[in-house]
Structures are given as C-alpha cells and as structure tokens.
Amino acid sequence: MTMPSLFLILFIGLATRLLLVGNPGFLADIAFWKSWSLAALDHGFVWTTYNSNINYPPGFIYILYLMGKIYSFLGNPHDYNSYWSQNNFGFLFASKSIAIISDVLVTLIIYWFFSHFSRVIPSPPAGGSRNLGHQAASSRSQRLLDPSTPSQSSVARDDKLRLFFSAIFFLNPIVILDSAVWGQVESFGILWTLLAIILIFNRRPLPATIFFTVGILMKLQNIIYIPLYFLFIFRYFDLRTVFKSLAVATATFFMVNLPFVLANEMKQVLYLMTVNSDYFPWMSLNAHNLWWIVSGASGMEVTDRITVFGISNAKTIGLLIFSGIYFLLCLLIYRKPTPRNFLLVLLMAILAFFLFTTESHERYSYPVIILLLFLYPFLERKTNNVQKYFWFVYLLLSLAIFFNIHTGLVINYPQNGIGILTKITTSQLTLLNSYVFILGFILLLPYIFSEMSYWFITIPFLIIVSGITLSNASYFFKRKVSLTAFKPVIEKQDYGTPQINKAVNSIQGWKSWSRLSGNYFYYNKGFGSHANSHLVFDINRKFNKFTTDFGVDTESSTLASVVFKIYGDNTELYTSSKMGRFDFPQHAEINVKGVKHLELTITDAGDGINNDHADWLNPVLYK
Amino acid sequence: MNKEDHNIIKIVFLTSFGILIISGTIYISFLYSQRQSNNIILPGGVTYLGPSENKNATPPQTSSPTPVRFTALSTESWKSFGGEIYPYSFSYPSSLPLVVFPDDTTDSVAIAWNNIPPQINILLNMEFMDKRDPKSLQQSKIEYVKNWYRYFSGLKGLSKIDKFTNTNGLKGYKAIYINTINQTPNVDVFFEVPNNPDKLIHMGSGVLDPELFDRMVDSLRWNSAHS
C-alpha cells in the first residue's frame, strides 16, 4: 500500500512543480546562472572563474555546466534574444530541474530513513552507555518506526508515518516555492548533508565525509556545520576516525577541484570560497531576523558596519552572538554525542546563523524544515502534549520561513509571487515575522536543555559579554582606539581599494605587500589609499579628539600630488596643504566631540589622479 | 483475463495517464511562460554573455571607422516600452533589441545590438540629480544639463543646448556635448519629471539613427497618476 501512495505523493508534487516551472522566478539569479553556465559550457570551469562574476563555490560550476548542457538540448544558448529572454522556458526548465530532482531525492531519503530507522540507528547494547545515542528515541517511537516489529497496527502506523513525513517535505509550499518558483537550489545543498548524516548514523564515517565535503563545495552554507561535524565524529567514534575523516575530506576536496589542480589555479578555489565574505555588507539580505528588526525592516539599506555598541559594529556583535550559541552546541555534542543531539545541533546552528549574524539571506533558514523532520523520531513523545508542542513549533517556523522566502522574491519581482500574499505583505508584517522566528528559536531551546542543565545558558552570555568587552577594551580602559579598528561605512577611491596597514599597491597580492610610509617614515597602522578617496567611519559620537599623520606613500612616483581633508558630519574640520612625494608626513589634531560620521578625503589636488598613492598614518581616536 | 494481465493493463493505463498529466502540466507551464514579458534580462556587473561573433573577423582598422547606426524600415511596427520602477513609457521599433538590468535602481534601458555591450549602450536612465551632487538641487534644470558633462572624464564641454516640449507635454533639454577628441557624436536629452524636482529622464542617441531617436524622444510620456 505504501509504495503506490509514495508514487502518488511524488506524482502530485512533481506535477505541481512542473506547472510552476514557467514562472520566471528570481530574474537576477536566473540571469547569473545563464551567464555562468554559458561560460562553463563555452570555456570550461577554470576560465569561468576568471571571466564571469561567479560567487558560488567551485563545485557548483559542475551544476552550472549541467544546466547549460541540459539547455543545449532544448535551445541554442548562443541565440542571444531567445537565451537571455526572461521567459526562456527551456532555461527555466533546465535550471529548475536540478532543484526539482534534489527535492525528489530528499523525499526518497526521508522515506527510506523512516522505513529503516532502527537499522540506521543501531540499538544500544543492553545496559549500554547513554552516549551511544539511542536513549532519546523512546520505546514508543521505536515501535512506531521500527519495521522489524511485526504487529499489524504498528505496521500500518509506520506506513502512515513515513508517508506523512515524505508528503510534509515534498508537498511543502516552502520547498516548492524555492525550487520550482524561485529557481534556487537549497534542497540540492541539504541533500549532501543528509546523505552524510545517514551514513554517520550507519557508522560509515568515511563515505559520510565524502558527501559532507562535496556538500560544502556545492553550497557554501554547509560550511557552518564543519566544527560540529568533526566534533561529533570524535565523540561518536574516536580521534583516529577524525584523522581518517580529515584525510578523506582533503582528498575529496582536491578531487572535486581537480580541474583547478591540473591548471595550477587553486587560488581561484580559495577566491570562490571566500568571495562572499562582505560581498553584501548589509544588516540583513531580506532575512527576517534580529538585524531586520534593528534596521527597522530596512536590512538591505543599512550597512552592518554601523556602530551599535561601544565601538563594535553590527557585524561583530552578530558574530559574537552566533559564536556564543555555537559554543553551547559544541558543548552539547561533546557531552552527549547522540544522533538526536547531532541533528539538533545542526538544526540550531543553521537557525542561529540565520537569526543572529548580519548579511544573512532569507533562504538560510530553509534546512530547518528538513532537519526538524529528521529530529522528530528521536524526541521523547510520552504525552500528546509533547507531540503537539513539536508540531506547533514546526508549523510556526514553516509559516515564518515561507513568508520570509516569499517576501524575498516579491520584494524584487512582485509579479512572480502569490498575488494576495504580495498585497498584504507590509514592513510591519515582516517585522512581526522576525519576532516569530526568534520565538521559534526560543521554543526549540527546551530540546537542548532537556539534555543539559539550564545553567549552561550562561555560557553563551559569558562568551558574548567577554567578546564585546575584549573588542571594546581599548576604548574603555586605554581611552583611545586606532581608527583601523573601525570598518568604513562608505569607502570609495579612484584606484584599487583601501588597504589596512598596507600601501595601496598591496592589492596586487601578497608579493606586493608593503608597509605604510611617507618619504621613508614607516608606520605600523593606518589606511593605504589613492586619490580621489573618500572613507567614512561611524564613530557614533563616542570620541573627543582625532589625531593622524598623513602623506604621499613612498611607493608612489615623484609626480604625485594630493590634498588631505577631514570632515565631521559634513563640516570641514581640516585641510592640508598640497603634498608631494618628497614631503615628510604631516600631523593633524582635530576636535571630534559630538561627531557621528568622521570622513577622511584625499583629493588629486586638481591635476589628475595618476601616481596619487596617499596614506592616513597612525589615525587614533581619543575618548 | 488472469490477475497478472489485469495488473499489467492497470500499470499501462496508470503510466499513460501519468505521462499525459505530466506532459499537460509542462505544456501549460510553457504557455504560462510565454504570456510573461519577454524582456531581455542580463546579469548585473561585468560577466560573460557569450562569445563575440566578430572576434578575429574584423580586419585591422587603418582609419577611424564610420559609426554604424541602427535604423528601421518605415513600414516596421512600433511597440511600447514601460519602466520597471518608474512610470515612463516610450515607443520603439519592434526590431530594436532592448534590455534591462535586474535590480537597477536607475531603471535603465539599454540597446543590445551589433555586439556592443549593452552596459555601455544605455538608451534611457533615470538621472538622480542629488546623487551626482547634492548641491545640484539648488540649480535650475538647464544649469544642471549645461554642466552634466563635468561628471564624465570623456567629455570636456557643451556645444549646444535647446529647450523643447515633446508631444506628450514633457519639458526637455536637448544637449550636444564635446568629447575629449573634439567630436560631438551623441545627442543627450533630459526631460523634467512632473512633481519630482530631483529627477530627470535621460535619453542618449548612441547607436540610433537621429530621426529614429527623435521619434522615440517625442513618444516619451510620464504617467503622473503613479508618480
């Protein structure tokens, strides 16, 4: 009975997805994929990284190539007008088919997992240690999920349950919206992590690590799981297995990146794995989270470099909160390395990452709806109330995730979403949804503290407070702070990018790194810049005095000529004389009491920007 | 008919039914996609858009080439194009390939023609005066247009400026700027935007035949009900 029912679920879900494939989805994502897949198809993997603006991890280029290949059977990718048309059905079909196939595979994994639960999760030995990972699955859930128990009623319940879980995923509006409408590949990313999880539970850590590593190279968010993954391997198996797994991970990493290895271009792999850091320096990339609330529902318009506490910016505070929670999760998995807790910490880690770090995308919460399903059979369900609690939290988070992803789509392309929902979507509703997300996170905490004392909750707070204290120590105790501790909220210059503690030519790579200097006077700290340059810092009215040296860098040619200017909240506070290559650094002391935005400007002195390498040297703020 | 035959018929029937439904949904989806806008959408930034077909085919130039202009037959049908963000619209010949850029706050429209990258072949964009220079809001529009060339290192002066009103009642300024090699290849038109003193609509003739460009300029309208 179950197989026909499973086919029916798959059939309904597949038909629904295929019906929606023609929706142009998130036009920008689709347009980028057209560009990158065409580059991979025309010129290969390594070439693509140099000649397109791809910012996905290297493994994903294979998928882009596959999209291009599928499309080439449906149309001509070099027919400019049809290829780049926003309603190019062939490309929509080719690109979305990757995610749709992944949806099917994840559904089959869910069905298989719930059919083989007792075999996947080995029973603990009689009187065995609590650490072997089975105690959390109550005897009742065992009966429900263990196909080896022969009772008629339990078999029927098993069938219903595994079909129910398969349907909850495959017919879930979140999953359909992400893959068939938007055209994104969240299910493809989580697919690899799920395979790794199941293999680990089946005590096959080395094959699991292969899938886990491939997953990281396909979808970068999976990187969040790395410390928890290896910590769990250490505690669930042993240190020797950790070393073996690390070796397997390294070998897999090089195998996946083989085209780059053969072309001696591993630096491009490093580039692709790090390019997204600070790529969009905003409070929230449409994620309804803490920073969406802080920014007043304008997460995409407020930089995360603004100072929010002491001299710490939003990004630092967000990372500290996330680190505190992550450490708590590490402690849980270290103390009680059970499959239940492994799933729980992965789930909480991705939710904490979504909720508390800045620069978070709306889709980062997606894995929660899958990991929660896998967690379900491990939970103790002695009473109906406990079950109701779980499903209440699941429903709450599902609604929040769906609304968030839908809002992310329609805020850019209102015509491609659900009309009624788009009409009622307001800033206030998105703020409310952010609170719902945080409530969902809080409601999941009892699953952690049923495994450890509530006193452990003090640990994240201690880490957050210590982190903030350390990053503000100079401000509170020394009463002076180097301006290099701040990230500019605005940075603009006509050549290169501002360099911290290095001259501007250092942008050419580590072989060109050079210290800051003015006519051979060397400095350890400062900004290496180039006319015309404009750096704005949010010093948040915390300081009274600003001192700095400045001058043309020794690396520039003899033709350099610049003028340095300092502004406080648009008021000019200081202007230097015209300076050239052979001038010694000059010094300025400025009153910045009450200043929120400190602006450092270097102009080309009216004779063009050529050769104008100029530095702010040892810039210091005094309380 | 035994049970096995009966099952085979059932399977064949269900499979055929399934294939029919799936094919039907794909076809409906295809029809739906064809009802959507067929605008050319290019990715933002500098990225790969396909091989340059004329690569290696162009002989070395020994003198300045005559610029090639896009033109259209007088019998050709014209279509209307509307802004994605701002309520402007204009008419254009149906053979002119127009493209837009995702998430472009200036709501630009570019021409993708003759292997010229659309990013450097902008036909129309919203001009935000305060973003060029906050002090420019204190200037009259004509002063702003007269000084517009100063924002571009490739331009060095103004050759001519005319004030006019198009058939849809929009007040505009037609300017010709001198580039750094003393040429005046383009016509730049700036329209005032009703009830939006900080904005102008900018149109550049670029690769368009002058008569064609004039007709498009004349067709520009602003739906002030939405402004």
How is this structure best described in words?
The complex is a heterodimer of chains A (623) and B (227). Chain A is built from 24 helices and 18 strands. Chain A is of the alpha+beta class. Chain A has three domains: 233 residues, no CATH class; 201 residues, no CATH class; 143 residues, NPCBM/NEW2 domain (Jelly Rolls), CATH 2.60.120.1060. In chain A, strands 5, 7, 10, 12, 16 and 18 form a six-stranded antiparallel beta sheet that branches. In chain A, strands 6, 11, 13, 14, 15 and 17 form a six-stranded antiparallel beta sheet that branches. Chain A has a two-stranded parallel ribbon with strand order 1-4. In chain A, strand 13 and strand 14 form a beta hairpin. In chain A, helix 6 runs antiparallel to helix 9, helix 18 runs antiparallel to helix 24 and helix 19 packs antiparallel against helix 20. Chain A is globular, with a radius of gyration of 27 Å. The termini of chain A are far apart. About 4% of the residues of chain A have low confidence. Chain B is an alpha+beta fold. Chain B has two domains: 36 residues; 149 residues, Protein Transport Mog1p, Chain A (3-Layer(aba) Sandwich), CATH 3.40.1000. Chain B contains four helices and eleven strands. Chain B has an eight-stranded mixed beta sheet with strand order 1-4-5-6-10-9-8-7. Chain B has a three-stranded antiparallel beta sheet with strand order 2-3-11. In chain B, strand 2 and strand 3 form a beta hairpin. The longest helix of chain B is centred in the N-terminal third of the chain and has 33 residues. At the A-B interface, helix 1, helix 2, helix 5 and helix 6 of A face helix 1 and strand 1 of B. Chain B: It comes from Candidatus Gottesmanbacteria bacterium RIFCSPLOWO2_01_FULL_39_12b. Chain B: Keywords: Membrane, Transmembrane, Transmembrane helix. Chain B: This is PsbP C-terminal domain-containing protein.
